[in-house]
Amino acid sequence: MSTPTAFVQKLWSYSHILRDDALSYLMAEMERLLSVVEELDAEVSAILPKAFTGKLASAEASG
Prior knowledge:
Order of helices and strands: HH
Distance between the termini: 72 Å
Number of domains: 1
Shape: rod-shaped
Strand content: under 5%
Helix content: over 70%
């Protein structure tokens, strides 16, 4: 690394590595959050019909 150009090229290559790592991390977090949202959606979908038919109040009172 005797020239400033070589140093800049090396630094630039590190920035590409860091960018790729950050994108991988963000994608993994987005997938995790999507699975949480899907689980919550399933729970809400199971509760809402009971709430509209009045079964939710009787279930809460009994247990």
